[in-house]
Amino acid sequence: MNLQTHKIVDLLADREAESVKRWLAAHPEVEIVSRDRGGVYIDGATWGAPQATQVADRWHILSNLGDAVEEFLIRAQIRLPEQAAALGECQKPDKPLSSFSATPASQRKSQARLLRKWKLYERVHELHAAGMSLRKIGEELGLARNTVRKYFRQAPEPPRPTPRPLRASQLDPYEDYLLHRWSQGERNVAVKRDHL
User: Fold this and answer.
1) Domain CATH code at residue 138
2) Tens-of-pLDDT digits for all 196 residues of the chain?
3) Paired strand residues for 2
4) Is the dihedral of CA 72, 75, 76, 82 positive or negative?
5) 76 part of a folded domain
């Protein structure tokens, strides 16, 4: 796709580095190659258009960022504010600050995603142990080669039966007071208690 005109220039027959290389070599006028972080496109662009600058496209950057943030929040068990609180409405949280990081629905969704990744990881290893190449595994499972490589090299975070609780905090003894001040709309930590 031409990123200036937003029109499709051509379609390749497959997702192989050799095809990318051949197409780019036939178009030496290409100065910038926008691509995902997949090895196929890195290799194809490097071999076929060594003169071109390679950049990661916006969609993949945002998608990768979203995935990384979601995985961090799951790992760190960080609790995000409810939607109403995010909109500026003052309300007293139903649960103490030391509760789990997500609602049951979002925990189920996250667990389901982790379970899907874990099953793919196990399937990649089963097929490889049976003698199948990583390329064939990708074709069999409908996965990009880099995804197969990632699952082959490193296990994803395993799904947990229950979320981990947050660790104790030095603020725990002051939780009731902090929740009370929050419900009153106070957001400035510098305001002292005697200003109530």
Assistant:
1) 1.10.10
2) 787 788 888 888 888 889 989 999 999 999 998 887 777 888 888 999 999 998 888 888 888 888 788 777 776 666 656 554 445 554 544 444 444 445 555 666 677 777 888 888 889 999 999 999 999 998 888 888 888 888 888 877 666 655 555 556 677 787 788 788 888 888 777 766 554 4
3) 7
4) positive
5) no
Torsion of CA 55, 58, 64, 65, to 10 degrees: 110
Residues in the chain: 196
Q: Concatenate the DSSP letters of all residues of 27-53 into one string.
A: -TT--EEEE-S-HHHHHHHHHH-TTSE
Q: Please state the domain count of the chain.
A: 1
CA atoms within 13 A on the CB side of 114: 19
Confirm if 48 and 18 have CB atoms less than 8 A apart.
no
- What is the C-alpha separation between 98 and 163, in angstroms, rounded? 12
Give the integer Cα–Cα distance in Å for 110 and 11: 35
Domain residues for the domain of 153 are 103-162
Number of Cβ within 10 Å of residue 64's Cβ equals 13
| Cβ atoms 138, 144 nearer than 8 A | yes
Q: Distance between CA 84 and CA 73 in Å, rounded?
A: 20
pTM above 0.70, yes or no: no
Residue 132 lies in a domain: yes
